[in-house]
Design goal:
27% of the residues lie in helices and 16% in strands. It is of the alpha+beta class and 490 residues long. The chain has three domains: 53 residues, Cytochrome C Oxidase, Chain J, CATH 4.10.91; 254 residues, Catalase HpII,  Chain A, domain 1; 61 residues, no CATH class. Strands 1, 2, 3, 4, 5, 6, 7, 8, 9 and 10 form a ten-stranded antiparallel sheet that branches. A hairpin with a 5-residue loop joins strand 6 and strand 7. Helix 3 packs across helix 11, helix 4 packs parallel to helix 9 and helix 11 packs antiparallel against helix 12. The longest helix is centred in the last third of the chain and has 17 residues. The N and C termini lie far apart (60 Å). The structure holds protoporphyrin IX containing FE (HEM). Belongs to the catalase family.
């Protein structure tokens, strides 16, 4: 019997309050064949608990799987960041990583064309650091104000109750900044064969700052040591039908076998002074920094080596927030990231509750949280009788006076400003570059995948506008797509 069941194999079945249960098969009735009695506390408690088993699923990334692991520093990065968990080669930090798909509901199939979430929690001695990324280096939009609209087009239509190609391609067609990410998504990497066989990215640009207060902008890359493996659209459709839990099962079973998946972790590093004149806006999430401009610097190794014991407690109730930074790491002015700094904590308070950060999977493991926040639903009394205010004269925890990150320089009036464009910025340049990098076979599969999806659009103007974005990225891309969509739409 697995060790994780042992606590439940001794002693009798009990009620929630611990009293022994006499009968778990028959409800108590008023005489044989009579109605059920309200005094059957065990029955009432069972039905009531059952009704409350679900919490709201995540509004995005509802479907996922997680595992614990270890991050090991392999290169000295102390001249770039003062984060303690990165302070020494060989230093190890416990982690928890949750993978996910984006659009599907909790019970959706894993093998679908969709970005994969790559949400990583480092349990550091200076607090938990969450890097809530994806398996893609870029995103569909560059301003958080568009996110709810974008996600509405990815989820179920309010009238049909299904995902609709009309909504998906209408939004993308009207949001040309999505062209880069959509080209990526419909290419070969759009359906990873498993969570182990894909890369991860922090995607946004983040601030690193060192002991001297010098600032660097960084982008994180997690390169899979298992090698990239993808599914074709046909393979995925078959697998999704036969084994909807394919990715979740693969992750758990590989860890059970002792085959621990790992990723080589690197960062691109931009000295702060170079940001203003870089050829692309370095804080625009729809753009990558080409490696020729900023090469990868290896910093460590991430290994996943322990399965959660209880999916609900540790995966469903796990919470990750891009606002969870530690000293030496902070946000950039990326407008998407700024919106996310609010969005996640708010989701956690709604979905799991105000004390979500107290749960075992979410609380710091290498230090403790010493806040003056108290009480609320499911508060566990961890602070005992300690004073709950600051300043206080009783030796309570107090502020340090040093922010986690360095201040940003800002100028100009407030306003609904468009994200500033740098010399080579437009919505299509990097999508075109990505297309031209592909082999002939890859281009064919990309065009076939996109054409199949666009052919589901009901209105010509929506399909044409969507195709127009790809034509703007590359003339050949647009021409081939037009022909392929016409062939399918007749
Ligand atoms: C402004 C844009 C965005 C907003 C407002 C937003 C909001 C959210 C919300 C509310 C959740 C559910 C959180 C929960 O219930 O615990 C979520 C999950 C997630 N988001 Fe975003 N998101 C945005 C963009 C992004 C981007 C750009 C990425 C990746 C680069 C990303 C990656 C993820 C991941 C990985 C999860 C799942 C976290 C987990 O496993 O618990 N999101 N997002």
């Amino acid at each position: 019997m697995p060790e994780i069941w042992e606590a439940y194999v001794t002693g009798p079945l009990t009620t929630e309050s611990g009293a022994p249960v006499a009968d778990n098969q028959q409800s108590e009735t008023a005489g044989p064949g009579g109605p059920v009695l309200v005094q059957d506390q065990h029955l009432l408690e069972k039905l009531a608990h059952f009704n409350r088993e679900r919490i709201p699923e995540r509004i995005v990334h509802a479907r996922g799987a997680g595992a614990y692991g270890t991050f090991t520093v392999t290169k000295d990065v102390t001249k770039y960041t003062r984060a303690k968990f990165l302070s020494e080669v060989g230093k190890q930090t416990e982690t928890f990583l949750r993978f996910s798909t984006v659009a599907g509901n909790l019970g959706a199939a894993d093998a679908v064309r969709d970005p994969r979430g790559f949400a990583l929690k480092f349990y550091t001695e200076e607090g938990n650091y969450d890097l809530v990324g994806n398996n893609t280096p870029v995103f569909f939009i560059r301003d958080a104000i568009k996110f709810p609209d974008f996600i509405h087009t990815q989820k179920r239509d309010p009238y049909t109750g299904s995902q609709e190609a009309d909504n998906v391609f209408d939004f993308w067609g009207l949001s040309p900044e999505s062209t880069h990410q959509v080209t990526w998504l419909f290419g070969d990497r759009g359906i990873p064969a498993s969570y182990r066989h894909m890369d991860g990215f922090g995607s946004h640009t983040f601030q690193w700052n060192n002991e001297d207060g010098e600032v660097f902008w960084v982008k994180y890359h997690f390169k899979t040591d298992q090698g990239i493996k993808n599914l074709t659209a046909e393979e995925a459709a078959k697998l999704a039908g036969e084994d909807p839990d394919s990715h979740q099962r693969d992750l758990r079973e590989s860890i059970e076998r002792g085959e621990f998946p790992s990723w080589t972790v690197s960062v691109q590093i931009m000295p702060a002074a170079e940001a203003a004149n870089y050829r692309f806006n370095p804080f625009d999430l729809t753009k990558v920094w080409p490696h020729a401009d900023y090469p990868l610097h290896e910093i460590g190794k991430l290994e996943l080596n322990r399965n959660p014991e209880n999916i609900f407690a540790e995966v469903e109730q796990s919470v990750f927030s891009p606002a969870h930074f530690v000293p030496g790491i902070g946000p950039s002015p990326d407008k998407m990231l700024q919106g996310r700094l609010f969005g996640y904590g708010d989701a956690h308070r709604y979905r799991v509750g105000i004390n979500a950060d107290h749960l075992p999977v979410n609380r710091p493991h290498a230090t403790e949280a010493r806040t003056h926040g108290r009480d609320g639903v499911m508060y566990d009394g961890r602070h005992k009788g300690a004073k709950n205010y600051e300043p206080n004269s009783f030796g309570g925890p107090s502020q340090t006076g040093r922010p986690l990150w360095e201040p940003a320089q800002v100028t100009g009036p407030t306003g609904d400003h468009v994200t500033p464009s740098h010399a080579e910025d437009n919505d299509f340049v990097q999508a075109g570059n990505l297309y031209r990098l592909m082999s002939e076979d890859e281009k064919e599969r990309l065009v076939a995948n996109l054409a199949a999806a666009i052919s589901g659009v009901s209105r010509d103007d929506i399909a044409e506008r969507a195709i127009g974005n790809f034509a703007n990225a590359d003339e050949d891309f647009g021409k081939r797509l037009t022909v392929a969509v016409q062939a399918l739409r007749g």
